Structure formats: C-alpha cells, structure tokens
Amino acid sequence: MTRPRNEPDRGHARRYRARVYSNLFVNACLTGVAIVTLLTERLDQRKNLMTKIRVYELAQELNVDSKHVIDALKADGEFVRSASSTLEPEAAQAVRERLRRQPAAKEQAVRPGRHRELALGREGWTAAVPRQARRDQPHRTVAVRDLAPLERLIARTRDEGPRITESRLKLIRAEAHPWAAQWFTPTEAAPWIALHVSAADARWFCKLGVTPEMLQLPFRMPGRAQGGGTMTHLVAFLRRDVTIDEIHAELIRTGHLPQAQQVGEEATQS
Asked: What is the Cα–Cα distance from 181 to 184, expressed in whole angstroms?
C-alpha cells in the first residue's frame, strides 16, 4: 500500500529529532568531560603548590629523566643530593615551568635510542656533545705529584702511574675523603690503608691503643675458629668474626696492651 503524495512522512521527522537530541547529548557529555578535566588539573596544581615532592616523582610527572630535573634545579640555584631528595613546592613549580617551556627538548630527552644528550644551562636546553665524539676526545690527565698528600698516598698505594685520568681522580678523592674527615695524616693512614682497614675502624683502633702491628699477631681467642694457627687478628676482623672491642679485650688478656689502660677507659666512661 502506497502513501498519498501529500501526506507528511512522520518517520522522517522522528529520525530527525532523534539525531538532534543525540548531538545535543554528545555535546553535553564532551562539555562535562572538559570541565571535569580542567577542574582536575586546577586541583592538581593547587595540590602541587601545597605539598612537597621528591625529585623522581617530579620526573615521572613531567615524563623526563631525573637527571634533567636535577640539572634544572642546579640552573635555578637549588642543590639536591639524589633523585630521592625532597623539593619544596616553590622549587618544584619552577622546574615544571622551566621544563614545560622546552617541549622539543623534553621530547628528545625521553625518546629511546637517541645518542645525543641534552645540557641545561641559563639559556635553556642545548644539545651536548655526542657520546661517540666524547669517546674520541683525548682524556684529560692529572699528575700524581700535584695531588693532595692523602690523595697522592692512595694513588701510589693503588699502583697508579705518574699521571691519572680525571675519572680515576674522582675515585681517589672519594676514597681519601673519609681519611681526611677522621683527621689522619698520610703517615698515620699509610699502614691502615695497606691493611685495607676503613678510616672509621682505624680511628677506633687508634682510640683503643691498637696498632697495625698488633693486628698482625696470631689470633688465639678461646672458643673461636683459629684457622690452624695461621689466622691473625686482622683476618678475623676482616672476616667479621670478631669486633674491635673483642680484639681490644683479647690483646689486654694476652698482655699486648696494659691492663691499666682498660681500667682508665672504664673510669672515663663512668
């Protein structure tokens, strides 16, 4: 049965109204999502301005490496020890603004497989020297005779040549720092370094009157493994079989340290 020519198509009108209502509903949903997203970002910004954050958390938020965050902090005059250090809200917000102003540099920083690095200075991110080019450059060296006394002692103990590279110099300085912090002179530190005793342990031995020569004596402590008579106090200590106080008490028992010293120390402690 055919519809008369002048009769209106009610199905077409219903479909048209359905499309209009559907478009209005979709637009309302998109507008609501945009509003919720904007409010969430504003709340996150207020939260970031009120709470402290660690360096690695800020790096995850900005999708960059922690090293770039530390470099940005140094450029702003902020010093942090590691990626676990805590940042004040003002410092964290300054880093966010600095890194977000450099979108191209941030993209290069997180892109895998890149063989170029970025350096952050006062002018922003700049491309550093490629790694292969740095390998081809000659290594800068330092003369051992120009080092500080403790550093020179450690370098000669490690059988370094007359000149060492800057990377080796950093390791030597890191090893010499504990000895300088314990106020050891090169003459005092030399025998302890030769025995592979740490600076803190060496200082405690010195306070108790134990000398490096005493550590070379045979270990005869009752009830302890003695290695068939070949073990020394030093070996037992490096193996963590005995403590410094136990070695001190054993040297007093065997007569290598005076008994009066122990009495004087107890009186001082009391």
From this structure: 8
- Do 73 and 79 contact (CB within 8 A), yes or no? yes
d(CA 192, CA 179): 10
Is the predicted pLDDT of residue 265 greater than 80, yes or no? Answer: no
Specify the domain boundaries for CATH 1.10.10 within the chain: 53-128
Q: Residue 173 pLDDT more than 70?
A: yes
Cα–Cα distance measured from residue 132 to residue 217, given in angstroms and rounded to the nearest whole number: 53
Is 0.90 surpassed by the pTM of this model? no
- Sequence-separated (6 or more) residues with CB below 8 Å from residue 144: 152, 155, 156, 160, 161, 162, 163, 164
Say which CATH class 53-128 falls into. mainly alpha
Q: Which pLDDT value is given to residue 128?
A: 53
The three-class DSSP label of residue 101 is coil
| pLDDT band (50, 70, 90) for residue 202 | very high
